[in-house]
Amino acid sequence: MHDAIVHPNGARIRWVELPGADPARVYVHGLGATSAPYYAEVATHPLLPRKRSLLIDLLGFGISDRPGDFPYTLEAHSDTLAEALRKAGVAGSSMIAHSMGGAVAIVLAARHPELVANLVLVDANLDPYPPSVVQPGSSGIASYTEEEFVSQGWKEVRDRVGPHWWSTMRLADLRGLHRTAVSLAAGTTPTMREILKTLPIPRAFLHPESDPPRDAEGLRASGVQVAAIPESGHNIMLDNPEAFVRTLATLLP
């Protein structure tokens, strides 16, 4: 396990690292998730040429620290992730980011362009949405106030998401989980979609075959490769790892 201090109070981001050649690949999890369980199978798959790979957890999630004074916005997550990557000696990485992690990765690529040379989004959030709407990767968390969620709302979310997702969500800091969900629902200015369209790097958006992104043609027109993965739901890398890896192999250097 590796770590880096990324916050003035000493909070650390941690990651599992697989050895290999640079430039590195960085894998970023979604809301209520953690990177190693979601990506270990694909990051070590023989179809992918071996590269240095960081399976990293954002503050508040998985094996990383949970500072109470951290805002847990998409921008704050991107800045602390950037700090961890710099301390890890990462530059010009290929970033593979799922769901909420994709929104963070888009902001990271815009704010810290030297860190990301290639961006692969996995059914990522591109647009703001009303907090009451249950989106992939949100489960209605933002529909509660922070105090409602911390006191009782998390139990309703636990029952709604089921044991598989809860197995990693239960590791998250409750306030961090809620604040991240609220920021994800609010989105960014300009929106993640608009930022993505203007990034001057290779970009791809992978989605379940039955659930293409809104305005896929607009994404393609801006240079984003849009690729459907068959027999998969929102957690593409878990649902069909073989097809996911085969597609990744065509997108990563």
TrEMBL record:
Residues 26-202 form the AB hydrolase-1 domain. Gene3D superfamilies: alpha/beta hydrolase (3.40.50.1820). Keywords: Hydrolase. One of its GO terms (molecular function) is hydrolase activity. It holds the Pfam family Abhydrolase_1. It comes from the Bacteria. This is Alpha/beta fold hydrolase.
